[in-house]
Known about the structure:
The structure holds three protein chains of three kinds.
Chain A: H1 2-27, H2 33-42, H3 49-59, H4 65-77, H5 91-126, H6 131-144, H7 148-162, H8 174-204, H9 207-214, H10 219-257, H11 262-271, H12 275-303
Chain B: H1 13-34, H2 66-102, H3 104-119, H4 122-132, H5 136-164, H6 167-174, H7 179-215, H8 227-234, H9 242-263
Helix pairs in contact in B: 1-2, 1-9, 2-3, 2-5, 2-7, 3-5, 4-5, 5-7, 7-8, 7-9, 8-9
Chain C: E1 4-13, E2 16-26, E3 32-35, H1 42-50, E4 58-65, E5 68-71, E6 86-89, H2 93-96, H3 103-113, H4 119-132, H5 148-160, E7 166-170, H6 178-195, E8 197-202, H7 205-211, E9 214-219, E10 222-228, H8 229-234, H9 239-246, E11 264-275, E12 278-289, E13 293-297, H10 304-311, E14 319-324, E15 333-336, H11 350-360, H12 366-374, H13 391-404, E16 409-413, H14 421-438, E17 441-445, H15 449-455, E18 458-461, H16 475-482
Parallel strand pairs in C: 3-8, 3-9, 6-7, 7-8, 13-17, 13-18, 15-16, 16-17
Antiparallel strand pairs in C: 1-2, 1-4, 4-5, 9-10, 11-12, 11-14
Helix pairs in contact in C: 3-4, 3-5, 5-6, 6-16, 11-13, 12-13, 13-14
Amino acid sequence: MTILVSRLVQALVVALLVGAATFAMMRSLPGDAAWRIAAGRYGYDNVNAAAAEAVRAELGLDGPWLGAFLQWMGDLFRLDFGVSLVSGQPVIAEIGHQLGASLWLALAAVGLSLVIGPPLGILAGLRPGSLFDRTLLVVSTALKAVPQFLMALILILVLSVQLGWLPAAGYGQPRHFILPAFALALGLAAVNARIARDAMAGVVAMPFYDFAQWKGLSRAQVLWRHGLRNVSVPLLTYLGLQFVLLVEGVVVIESIVGWPGIGHALVHAVFARDVPMVQGTALMLGLGFVMVNALIDLLAARIDPRGAR
Amino acid sequence: MTAISLPRALPAGRTLGAAILAIVAVFALLGPVFVPGDPFAQSLMKSLAGPEPAAPFGYDHLGRSLWHRLAHALRLSPLIALAAVATAGAAGLVLGTLAALRGGWTERALVVLADALLALPGLLLVLIVLAIMPGTATGFWAGLSLVLWVEFFRLTRATARATLASPAAQAGRLLGFGWPYIFRTHLWPEIAPLMLTAAAFGTATAIMGIAALGFVSVGMRAPTPELGLMMVELLPYWREAPMALLTPVLATFALLLGLTLLAGGHRT
Amino acid sequence: MTLLSATDITVRDGAARLVAPVSLELHPGEPLVILGETGSGKSLLAQAIMGTLPASLRATGTVRIGGCTLLAEDRAAFRGLWGRQIAVLPQEPWLSLDPLMRAGPQVAEAHRLVAGLPAAAARNRAAEELAALGLDTAAARYPHELSGGMAQRVAIAAARAGGASLVIADEPTKGLDAARRDDVAALLLAALTRSGGLLVITHDLALARRIGGRLMVLRDGAVVETGATSAVLSAPQAAYTRDLIAADPESWSRRVAPSEAGQAVLEARNLTLSRGGQRLVDGLTLELRAGRILGITGPSGCGKSSLGDALLGLLTPERGHITRARGLAPTAFQKLWQDPVAAFPRTRRLGQTLRDVARLHAAPPERIGGLLERLRLDSALLSRRPAAVSGGELQRLALLRAMLANPRFIFADEPTSRLDPITQREVIGLLADLARTDGLAIALVSHDPVLIDRVCDETCSLPMKRGEHDTLECSDLLRTAIG
């Protein structure tokens, strides 16, 4: 219960922060912003001073800021995100379109990273200091030092430009997933593997792990019945935190490979100063983090009844 | 008691990291001193030309010397990153200690704020701040500071809480020592190594962020030499001049690898 | 017939020999106790016999169990014995149960996977055994919901579920109070009656006395003395065994209280303390006088440390008053901790820490030298860091540090519970001397009622919290249940 309350508070503060940041962004739009927004909405040929003035009034770009701020936050908490300044479509509808594409990419990346990282990490953690452990440390350190955009760049150069195996960009077919999902997953897996390794090494060093073997269970039985369960909790908690890293990666990777998702839209919105879109997407991502972590909290509490975490 | 052994760092990994960073720094600072030149001077005649004494790394698509552009880029983002880490580190240290010492509402408010910031992708915050602040470099500095202080705050607060509750700090108070002494002898020795690790990671995060946003064309603007921007500019010429593209790629990797090794652990 | 015989067991760490060739035999129905202080090699010897030594150490010698003969260096061969021939009892039962699994399945899995019972039968068997141990409700609980004593019984059931007839217990009473210690002894003896073998490794004379059988005293990896336990303990032959027995609080002479009571240093009236929403101390009244030692006892978790924090002004009482004598500096109230290593700044040299304290209290630097001599400490220790000094020496340095602040009252929170008996006697002796010569008021917390009885002028015993009554006194019931 307390878990959910604290997550709820977190969600509220996230909304407040996003609201304040986007309000500040709105107020600091350069002088011709209204004109540009109007141009974006009605086309350059149809813009006149009246249309720009209408936009200015609609957005409350002048006038006392406190009243405008309260109005802004009021709209936010009524979940009224307004319309995109660029397309004129409701922000909710735009995000609805893009969210699916991003979710699939994110899920593919997380799934892939979980297949690669934790098994290797657990294997290394079972024998800390072994050759395999040290090799994994070197590889994961090197992988961690490669930012996701650079990973995407390298994969594009090798797999699509040089070898021609995969399309460099595009969306719609399963093979379009492979490159961006790998670009995201390798970095995540490098860190997953370290977390799993440290957790496993910690569990192996615990007295209960020895005692389970002294009871007569085989190594495999002990790992299966006592090892994995205890490793899963820190790993899960970490996955929740990794969500932010994943989202950042999605934003960048989508922009690189032209993936029609929320990250791509966000970068465009920032570029075009489409503040309502920025607000909508930022809120969506922030609340997504809170929701994922609330679910993970509940799951972890089920596995680990000790609470007090 | 069973000691949990978690060998975190590569043996000699930190030394290796520091050595890599030293090489990168020497190049960035002294490269243009040894081979004088202008990172902005164009000469379309030399577009994508190979190395020559005046431009040891060759030329980019606009005929600008890659040696000088790279040296410039390797000063720019690390400088912004270090400034942001210094600001964030100081803020995190002060606020974290304050939260642990005062407790109550001060602590609760700071924790709630930090948790909310944690939920927002750092790059997104940086992008928004960039849209608000007038200059790109100052925008990056402010945005990255805003993102990075949370980690320092959390580390400091957790360590300070544990240390202040320890028998050693309690003994210090019973013996009549003041807070400055307790901070100096009990807190700082525990916090300092964590701060070094966090600072190395923070610097790497900041450099990655600047490069990533440059790469998707929403960060530094041309013609500023910046690592991500250089890569995206040279990407179309991969077939003609692979080395031109690899130069910023390898430099970025070296910089980030050096920082990761120097950190000698991983984020918790 | 011997159940187990170990011949010429040695343990080496590189070139250093930690256990000299030691041989021992275990007969059915006759327990064997290996007694020794920390660092005597007693646990290493046991681990070599069980095949559980850390990988960095090397063992030689032969072990015969049941029908088979094993070489001590061939650790893999011992695996097959665990659970089936030898039941290994862990040192800290609480940490030895999987925190994420209920107690029942942790016993049942050994019945199923080791003894080969079908799942349902294994579950029933586990439930029966736990019920027989007085743990009807424990099967569905997680380890953190069990008390230390309950966890110990679950661990015993789990260790023996595989059908092992030989029980090896390494320090089974570590950190337990006297009542629990007797409980454990009863459980171990109950395990012995039918199935035969029991090997107990301990530093605890009282446990050795209760287990009986044969005794082997170990020091620096070599056997000092062997014989029937009762005979060795009543008439020790070796000088070391005599010292060991003399250091046991049972053999201490009672301290003579100072004839006239000093003036009151601290008074607590109707003290009520809570921590984390739990009522710990209810309406306690006590008085501390110069030169007197007040003993504080009670089971773990009953609020002894919280009482100390309140007396020292670190915890605000929920109700009641604490009055300090007029004219005393706030720093006249000092404390000794159970774990002295944690009570010093980790990275600072001890001499530096002590000089800081001396400077703060305007004590001349010679004062440190004088106190070093009084507390029989070597000044070479001052150049070391806390972790590089033995527990006994560090606890005396902590006492020295407190003395630099000119205390009138010292709250000593289990100051010797992690020390060996001989060192314990020395530290407690110094503390009592200080009370007498310097007129200190001392509150001494210990879980050992005998120690409190020998040293203290008055005793304050804190009651157990509600809901913690789990110590089974009915050892007869246990004996029949397990056997």
